[in-house]
């Protein structure tokens, strides 16, 4: 579904990505792990189109989208849940969800809302409340649900567990697994390597702008280099 070939990206003279190769097949859950500053966020921003690419190519379902505008990537079904949740605090939970579906209309949107509420009853309970009054974990769930309202083909998740209490981290990862079971293709960027690789079909390890390892999630969890550098074992 997604194929990244020799991707490079710069901030001025600083090279943030140095020839990244990566693929994601339809229905897969692929994790990207790496330390602070490795280039994980930059890679996601290149895929969603808000960060300029200086070399290489990004193909989505065989189509070259390397220079496509962010909104045309959204139209193709690529949707990003940004780091730090970023729900619209003063708007109600329900309005946040509806905004996710702004490109769609009508009864289908109402059906989707009901589906989200069934899946996450706490969002239903608080649907009239300003989103800013939700807990951190609930805001993260809302941000993911808002993205799902757009019916993405590929969902990009940037550090969904960041800053959450351990109990909520578990809840977020359960949610990500649920999405996979329902057929969403997912690219999960995480500093929590243990949890991410534990649920991923495959994973990539990024160091200083380049992929240094890629394998199944299970194999990476057993990899000596991963254990030492990312799992603290
Ligand atoms: P984190 O987990 O901290 O978000 P990351 O793996 O996502 O880290 P990036 O944010 O993609 O890493 O950063 C990759 C490199 O690019 C780093 O060396 C960082 O200092 C640099 N960088 C990121 N954003 C900018 C910017 N706006 N201007 C200049 N350099 C930047």
From TrEMBL:
Keywords for this protein: Amino-acid transport, ATP-binding, Nucleotide-binding, Transport
GO molecular function, one term: ATP binding
Recorded superkingdom: Bacteria
ABC transporter domain span: 2-233
Cited InterPro entries: AAA+_ATPase (IPR003593), ABC_transporter-like_ATP-bd (IPR003439), ABC_transporter-like_CS (IPR017871), BCAA_Transport_ATP-bd_LivF (IPR052156), P-loop_NTPase (IPR027417)
Entry's Gene Ontology BP terms: L-amino acid transport
Keyword flag rRNA-binding: no
Family classification: Belongs to the ABC transporter superfamily.
PANTHER family with a match to the protein in the record: BRANCHED-CHAIN AMINO ACID TRANSPORT SYSTEM,ATP-BINDING PROTEIN, HIGH-AFFINITY BRANCHED-CHAIN AMINO ACID TRANSPORT ATP-BINDING PROTEIN LIVF
Record-given protein name: Branched-chain amino acid transport system ATP-binding protein
Native source organism of the sequence: Roseospira goensis
């Amino acid at each position: 579904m997604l194929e990244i070939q020799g991707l490079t990206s710069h901030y001025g003279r600083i090279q943030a990505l140095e020839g990244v190769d990566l693929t994601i097949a339809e229905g897969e859950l692929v994790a990207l792990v790496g330390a602070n500053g490795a280039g994980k966020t930059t890679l996601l921003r290149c895929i969603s189109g808000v960060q300029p690419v200086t070399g290489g190519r990004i193909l989505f379902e065989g189509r070259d989208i390397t220079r496509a505008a962010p909104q045309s990537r959204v139209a193709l079904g690529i949707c990003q849940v940004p780091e730090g949740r970023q729900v619209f605090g003063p708007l109600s939970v329900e309005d946040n969800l509806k905004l996710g579906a702004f490109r769609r209309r009508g009864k289908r949107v109402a059906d989707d809302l009901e589906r989200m509420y069934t899946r996450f009853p706490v969002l239903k309970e608080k649907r009239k409340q300003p989103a800013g009054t939700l807990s951190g974990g609930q805001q993260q769930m809302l941000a993911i649900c808002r993205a799902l309202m757009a019916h993405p083909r590929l969902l990009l998740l940037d550090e969904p567990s960041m800053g959450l209490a351990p109990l909520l981290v578990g809840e977020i990862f359960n949610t990500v697994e649920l999405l996979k079971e329902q057929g969403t293709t997912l690219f999960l960027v995480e500093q929590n390597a243990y949890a991410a690789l534990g649920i991923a079909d495959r994973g990539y390890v990024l160091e200083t702008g380049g992929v240094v390892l890629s394998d199944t999630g299970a194999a990476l969890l057993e990899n000596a280099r991963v254990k030492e550098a990312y799992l603290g074992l």
